[in-house]
Amino acid sequence: MRTYRIGICSTDPEYAAGLMMALNQISRGEIEAVVFSRPEVVMTCVPFREPDLLIMDDWRAEGEETAEKMQELEKAYGIPVCRLTEQPSEEGIFKYQSVREICKALLTRLRDARGVVPRYSGSIAVYSPLGRCGKTALARALACTGGGRGMLYIDMEEFTEADVHSEVLYQIKQRIPDIYEAVVREQTMEEGMMILRVSGMYSELKDVQPEDLKWLHEQLLQPGRYQSLIYDVGSAVLSDISCLQVFDRIYMPVLPDDVSRRKVDHFREILRKRKLGELLLRICPVELSEDAIRTGDPQRILQCLEECA
Fold first, then answer.
1. What is the pLDDT of residues 180-207, one digit of tens each?
2. How far is the C-alpha of 129 from the C-alpha of 25, rounded, in Å?
3. N or C: which end of the chain has fewer CB within 10 A?
4. What residues are paired with 284 via a beta bridge?
5. Is the model's pTM score more than 0.85?
6. Which residues pair with 233 in a beta bridge?
7. Using CA atoms, how far apart are residues 140 and 253, in angstroms rounded to an integer?
8. Is residue 278 within 8 Å of residue 74, measured between CB atoms?
9. Positive or negative CA dihedral for 24, 25, 28, 29?
């Protein structure tokens, strides 16, 4: 069972403290709630104790409205923010309903935001700043979903075992309209999934820019073509970390040891310093079991994905 961290920021400190204690008791370990006195305090504490969700009511400080604070937090730190409302509202969480209903609404929002049911539509990247964490195994498991129908696994790792002689990268750079036909010619069926290897040289892949990928997505995700593009992305092929912005969703395999945690924390801090904190809203960390990584069994891997979401 995953424990979600929730930050509560309210102009009524007694209400915030009471809600925190009630949520921690009623959720039975699914929620770990903490109280922040002001939005600014959340920002200073983020690198050390990052909430999965921040809930806050109307807060006016230094002339800024609550909505502006919410946008600032979401964009800068990649923290979803939800408003506590005085009246029932679909846009927020009603403050004065029972704590059990608040707990239920929060868990529903958290699970939807992080994706308990994996979202396969659109462009998906599997990327991690760590090595030997099951990145390729996860990407292949996603590409095998539903027998691979409508899925295309795109190999963008640093090294590939197969010799690749593809015209796809050239057509991407030249914006040749019949790129879909070229992709169909170049793709191969392996282990029940469609695979496209764009290039066998990481130096060529490193030349792929965000605008190239955006154009490719426009061409391939049209009706009657592909439902999902699953990218297996190696760190060395990214010319700029901002390339991750072109993906609808990013699954990031992680490892439980302290060294790996520090590397992931450092990666997240780099995103924030580069003003790419909004990317964190699209990143879904996934911890695969050693058995799932070793066997490469798609069902075991997807089960780990659902448990981590």
1. 999 999 999 988 899 999 887 888 899 9
2. 36
3. N
4. 251
5. no
6. 156
7. 13
8. yes
9. positive
Helix 179-186, helix 210-220: angle, nearest 10: 90
Residues ≥6 apart with Cβ < 8 Å to 299: none
Phi, psi of 112 (to 5 degrees): -65, -40
Neighbours of 47 (CB within 10 A): 12
The tokens describing 88, both together, are 């029932």
Where are the extended beta strands (E) located within 174-238? 188-190, 193-197, 228-233
Question: Going along 46-162, which residue ranges are E strands?
Answer: 53-56, 81-85, 93-94, 122-126, 151-156
- At CA 126, angle to CA 121 and CA 198, rounded to 5? 90
Residue closest to 85 by CA, chosen among 63, 64, 107, 70 = 70
Q: How far is CA 306 from CA 12, 169, 185, in A?
A: 36, 34, 34
Q: What is the mean pLDDT of each run of 10 residues along the chain (309 residues)?
A: 86 93 94 87 70 81 62 83 88 92 92 56 93 94 78 88 80 94 93 88 89 96 92 90 93 94 91 89 90 89 81
Does residue 250 sit in helix, strand or coil?
Answer: strand
Q: What is the CA radius of gyration of the chain?
A: 21
Q: Using an 8 Å Cβ cutoff, are 27 and 65 in contact? A: no
Q: Which residue is listed with tokens 């981590």?
A: 308
d(CA 193, CA 221): 17
Let me know: does 253 contact 286? Beta carbons within 8 Å: yes
Amino acid letter at 198? V
Residue 152 and residue 229 in contact, taking contact as beta carbons nearer than 8 Å:
yes
Q: Are β-strands 228-233 and 122-126 bridged in parallel, bridged antiparallel, or unpaired?
A: parallel
Determine how many CB atoms are found less than 10 A away from the CB of residue 191.
Answer: 12
